[in-house]
Each structure stands twice: as structure tokens, then as C-alpha cells.
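Before a colleague's protein record goes any further, I have to sign it off. I want your independent view on whether this chain really folds as the C-alpha cells say. The record follows directly below this note.
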Amino acid sequence: MGILVDVGVIGAGPGGYIAAIRAAQLGLSVACIDDWKNVSSGPAPGGTCVNVGCIPSKALLESSANFDMVKNGAAAHGIEVKGATLNLNRMLGRKDDVVKRSNEGILFLFRKNGVSFYHGTASFAGTSEAGYELKVSGKEEQFLTCRHVIIATGSTPRSLPDLAFDEKRILSNAGALAMESVPKRLGIIGAGVIGLELGSVWHRLGSKVTLLESQPTLLSMADRQIAGEALKFMRAQGLTIQTGAAIRNIDTAQSSVTVEYDDANGSVQRATFDRLIVAIGRVPRTSGLDAHNIGLKLDERGFIAVDGECRTNLQNVWAIGDVVRGPMLAHKAQEEGIAVADRIAGKYGHVNYATIPSIVYTHPEVAWAGKTEQELEAEGCEFRAGTFPFMANGRARAMNSTEGFVKILADAHTDEVLGVHMIGPMVSELIAEVVLAMSFKASSEDIAQVCHAHPTLSEAVREAALGVNGRLLNY
């Protein structure tokens, strides 16, 4: 039998490290195992989110937005800049430093909360009377015996059939965040959240970017009105976006990649790029767990089968985040991690899946939570909509960032807020107010009655709430 702990957490991504910390706060002995490495082969907890996802992409989005502002936006503020140039190495270095500090922050939190961290991969070796046996393969092989196990191994990028990532010409999100030069022609297969954000970064830095999306509309999971606005703004910025594109063939050469595809009209098209990013989704990372050793059930797509409380088919084995059903979002994984730790400790664990927000960090930003108009119509739910454009918001005008609007959907009879959809400046921050309101089943009138400081972008939220009942004050 190995070292005995109450909870063994496999994976130190957003779900795993938060679950480990919460469990330790509740008085449980906790071990967390993770195999991410930094450039010096040291531990780099944080998973995809911190290392090659959420955090580095936002760092590059911020840097590239500042570069674009200096070149193309400063003049509107009376600031004239000539000869602005890009130092890509420094920009990437800043991104790497942000990642490193995040890694170090997680390790500090482990020490602060008494979580034992093991740098390596974990797999199920079997069971014993005391619990589940985990084999940890790192610099040396170790064994842990865990009364409870939380699986939080995350996901990996999905590749196209017969087209492996080489991270030189054919790039996943990891390679797309580390290009050492700006490609003149950049192709992206998939115009979802990852494709749009990466496309925005490299377009701002000088690439001619083409996105090929198989769905007939952009951001098909978002409210149709919001998605339409996003497509309009992205194209106006210079991104080429082809929806309804069906990939036929991809030919790679020493210095280029040629994609043959059918466009939305069924005509065959060819496009040649210097580099190609494949952003067609992600798949659960479960292959290295040796799940068969303990009889852990996976579904036909490789996800771990769980119930509504993240319990697997095995007693005291839990799974959270990207390896289970639901959206692959860092904050969803965190909420599940907290809830599972609470349940293990005998407390009430809560996740409201109906109010999990989704965000696209482009310019303008896109954010939504709850039901779309289309979903409510399909359900036969009577609702009222209130919208307010940022062009009528004083703070947005002062910022010279007036694109987009806020839309709030409320039940026609009870006035309960059922959904919120935003496109505009800093909506990634504004949406939290409405998510909080929805969590308490607030009405649009509740939001409208709250005093919002002036001038702020948040006033657009209040105005949209007023608009639900035809009471707009500033438009």
C-alpha cells in the first residue's frame, strides 16, 4: 500500500487545483498529481488553461490589442504615433512570464493549504481495502492509496484525420501561441472561440487571416442576433470568415499548406497559407488513466460517465471538467471541483449549470449566459427582450468603443431573467452582474431598480433591463 490520503486529485488544471485546495481547506489530506512541465522541465501546474490556453491567449490578446491601438486607434484620441514596430520576442516573453507567475502561484497555494503535490502522471494500479491505488510516474515511481479520487485530467486538441500537429506548419492552440514570426498568410480551421481569439491576435500583428468554419453560421451556440453582429464586426476588421466550409483535402509542403474546401454554395475553393491552425474542438484526456484496471466507465467518445453530481460508476471516484459532459470551460471545471470537494466532506455541493457564462475575448467581446431567443422560442416560452446599444452609453463614447449592445431576456409573465447576451467593450466583466441576478432568480425589474454609477459601461445593463418593460431612458 502506498502513502494514504483522503483525496487524490489527478490533474492540476483549473478544476483539479481548486478541488485540491478546497478539500484541504475542509480538513482532508490531499495529494494532487500533474505532469505539465515548463521550459526547464520543472512543474507547471495549471493545465491547458494556464499553460497553453486561457491565460497565455489573454496575454497575447491584450498585447496585440495595445499594438493595434497604437497603430490604428490612438489618433482618434489625439495621440499621433509614427513608426510603431512589433517586438514579437518581447511580446511572447511577456506571455511566458505571465504563465510562469501563474504556475508559481498555484504551487504557493498548494503549500499554503497543505496540499501534497506530485510532479508526474497518475494511473490506476488497482484497489485495496483502504481505497484506490494510484501509480505516480515521475522522476521516480511512487504509489498513493486514496480513499477518494477526483479525475481532472482535462482535454487535448482534436486533430483532423491523417493530419497530425507538428506545431511548425500544422498548429494546435499550443503552437499558435508560440509562433516565432508573424505569418503573412494564416489559415484557421474552425471559427469558434479559440479560432476567433487566435485569429484576432495574429491579424492585429500583421497576418492575413482566413477562418474556415463548417457550421452555416458563426458562433452557432450563441444567440443569433449576437452572432450576426460578431460576424459583421470581425469581417469589418479584416478577418476573412467563410462559414459553411467543408474541408476536402489538405496538402502540406515545406513552406506552405494548401486547403481545398467546398464553400457554402458547394463550389470547390483552394487557399494556400504559410501556417494552418486547427481549432475544431477538444477531446477528453483519459487514455493514460488505465481506467480498465478498476472498471471505470467511459462513454463512446472517451468521456468519463458521471451523474449530475460528478459521481462515476465507482464509489468514491469522481470526475470533473473537460473529461465529463458539459461545456469545456475553466470556470465550469472550478465550480465542479469545489462542489465535489464539499460533497466528499459531507457538505452540500452546488453547481448551477444554467447560469455558466461563455465569453469570446475578441474586440468587441462577446458574452452570454442562460437561454437564447431561439431556445426560448423552441420551448414555447413567452418572453420579452430589452436591448441597449453601447453607442448610447456615455462611457463607451468616451472610450471610443461603441460597438455592440446588451440584450436581456425575461419571462413575459413572471419577469424572471432567463438569458443575457452581450457584444461590446468589457462585456466579459459586465456579464457577472446578470449571472448573479439569474442565480437568485431575479427579475429584470430587480436589475432596473439598482443604482448604477455614472458614467459606466454597466449602465447599459440597467438600460437593457429597463428595456424589457419598454422603459428605456437613454435611447
Summary: The chain has three domains: 3-157+283-351, 170-280, 355-468. The chain is about 30% helix and 25% strand.
